[in-house]
Amino acid sequence: MTKIRSCSMPGALILMLALGLPGDLTSAQGVAPVSGDPATNAAADAKPDLRSLLAALPTASFADKRQLIQQLLALGDPHVRAVLQAFLSDSLVVRTRDQHVFLGTISEEHADQLQLTDPLTSATAGTESPDDFTTIGVNNQLRKELRVALAQYDLASPDAGVRLAAVKEMLRALEPRTQQMLRDRLSQERDSAVKREIQVGLALADLDSEQAATRLAAVTELANSLNPDVYNRLSAMVEKSGEGVYGEPDPGVRAAAAKSLRSIEHYRSFYAAIQTLIYGLSQGSVLVLAAIGLAITFGVMGVINMAHGELMMLGAYTTYVVQLLMPDHIAASILVAIPAAFLVSGLVGVAIERGIVRYLYGRPLETLLATFGVSLILQQAVRDIFSANNRPVITPDWLAGTLQINDVLAITYNRLYIIGFTFALFLGLLAVMKRTRLGLEVRAVAQNRGMAKAMGVRTQWVDALTFGLGSGIAGIAGVALSQLTNVGPNLGQSYIVDSFMVVVFGGVGNLWGTEVGGNSLGIVNKVLEPYVGAVLAKIFVLVFLILFIQRRPRGLFPQKGRGTDA
Amino acid sequence: MRESFVNAPFAALSADRGGRWFLYLLLGTAVIVPLLNGLPGTESALHLSNYTMNLVGKYMTYAMLAIAVDLIWGYCGILSLGHGAFFALGGYAMGMYLMRQIGTRGVYGDPVLPDFMIFLNWKELPWFWHGFQSFGYAVLMILLVPGTLALVFGFLAFRSRVSGVYLSIITQALTYALMLAFFRNDMGFGGNNGFTDFKDILGFSLQAPGTRALLFVATALGLGSSYLLCRTVVSSRAGRVIEAIRDAESRARFLGYRVESYKLWVFVLSAIIAGVAGALYVPQVGIINPGEFSPANSIEIVIWVAIGGRGTLYGAVVGAFLVNFAKTYFTGALPSFWLYALGALFIGVTLFLPHGVVGAISRRAKRRAPGALHE
Hints:
The structure holds 2 protein chains of 2 kinds. Helix content of chain A is 62%, strand content 7%. Chain A is α+β, with helices and mostly antiparallel strands. Among the domains of chain A are: 160-270, no CATH class; 278-492, no CATH class. In chain B, strands 1-4 form a two-stranded antiparallel ribbon. The two termini of chain B are 18 Å apart.
């Protein structure tokens, strides 16, 4: 199914043979026969190869270049794609002295040199001064041609991802020729995502059709597409313009469009709700992270530790130091930082308990003031050691990226990780409190100190360990926060009010309360945000909490069977 | 116990030696500082710079604030970690009056709208700004706004018996929420920058030496009368009930006292004093911004009281002066040292000086002369 054609280049008088394109494509693009006398086709039976086509390029006219591109495409040579790409980006160059064609990019080592690549082998061909080269020119029409050619090239790729990208690229500016290409592809496409993309794209194109029936079919086809273009187009169809004319003249099609639009809106609001839920959960998880250590020190032991935020800050700085110590293993640094931060913050916590808090048991307001003093000292120490500026903590690759579920729902991986991490931390802590000897003793001391002591529990030891555990958890929270916010001396301060509110909201002494409370506050915050803005949403949540505590001073899940407060 | 309203403060003072000393000292300061600032030439050794007078004036407003906190914490056991909010609200009310006084002298020269509103492209004055061109109205607001907030907040909190650390935490949340709100440009309070560039008060230029001296005297008066007011309250019969509530709230309730009402009124009074202190602070310092609402500020107030010695009123004044003097000195001389020092003060005072500086001194005096003083 090939045609032999010839063309004579007026300038260089190069005669060459070209392998034609598949017939359907040729007809779709409606290429006119090329000028030239068949009688002069001296080399009519010689098969053109990449080398000869490239050699023809430098001297070809724009019209001839167009032909050459099609011929290059037909070669099926794996090196062609790079050539077309270079051609498109103005980096296909000719060496003046021998008319050799290269892919030339600015050299990375020497900005004044061209890094050359041999188009035939994709091997590097050294660097040379750009003065000896001229770029093979393209005009806008050729660029369009090249884009289509590249897309067509990619459309045949075995990799579904490449095909999808190619379809998207083609849909950006659909013309009859590419439309036909897509229709052909649709019949043989096996990947459902690519298929769907093509269908939606073609249906979108059909919306411009003169026939009302075609438009109607397209509108129905688009009923459950989440593509934002579809939504905009359908909305435009059912809306009245300034002059009172509908975007869509036919009432039947308009009604169908409105129906499709409703269906799309239904889907969109569903996914928007899921997104709000996940955003809310991730924000709530940050709150839970900040509060869960406090749920131990404040909730179980009743110690108001105002330095809690600074213990998180220490955890974040530990992450930074770990990354400094192992610059070649950033991916693993987070995993190393978690136990390291637990140790650092936990030891500082034990020091605070042994040095200060133990003298102030039973005097919560004094504890509050003394630990606030500790927080000031820790902040200033960090400022003196690491400077007052924020420290850069690198996010490992495996934490970055986005999970694109569909056109309207995309969730960054760090949100999912934070939700999972927080929940795991919560379960771990719950297990420690409910299943271990330490947890048992902690609960015993919290419930009845004197009785626990009489039963042989070393209460002082338990106090120190409990405080250390809560502080260590704060350190782990700091590792997670280092991935989400700036690591600076003020990191802790910004969470202290929130974290106390979460613990009080959830119910003091109740880990489940903290988990549920934090997550529900996060969700409420995210639900409010679109209506009133982030800051006002936070203010509303705070006011809500203040009022809530008036109604239920013991939180969502109050502990039962405790005596009245003294 | 039968005292007329007029001589009640003096009767209260008769048993209050520290308070008398404090008032004499305050009277001396109020007379001498402006004189030393105004009369001797600038090169004279006796001359007090504007800066120093301003600083002492600022400390006096802090001392008022400390008295307000001591009234509720030292006598009623309510630890408010949000008293900075009342101070800042009073300051903002005064700031609004001062902003309206700028008139056409602002950068944009609008006779009605303050500069920041022009900058935000606002066309008319928000409703809550009306009336602030009048000093009388502004004074009313200085008393009413913090008072009303305290009334509503206290009514809700005390009625549902939120107390102890829970109350501390929600007062902290209150000031935090207000800080976030005042940082917003749309609130109409100048957002991040707050108010500044004030020109004059009651028609007198704020830069004029006479105005400064008068402001200083007014602040001293404010401090003195707040002290007398609080002293009168705490030595009255109601004051005894308030102390009883601090020491044994349930017992006071069972004895038939309406604990909530006592707490509420003392809380409102304290908030109003804090608001007046803020109003006196703003014209002297020349700026008010949302940073005043920050929870850390409010905690610092508590430490002034703790360091001075709670439950004495004059101890709060001593603490406010000591800590702020140290702060001014160290932030200039050893900037990074200050936060260590402040942190160590918090820890040291709570561990070693539970009754503050004043408490430690009077204890020592008591030990030397047993039975001479009775608290």
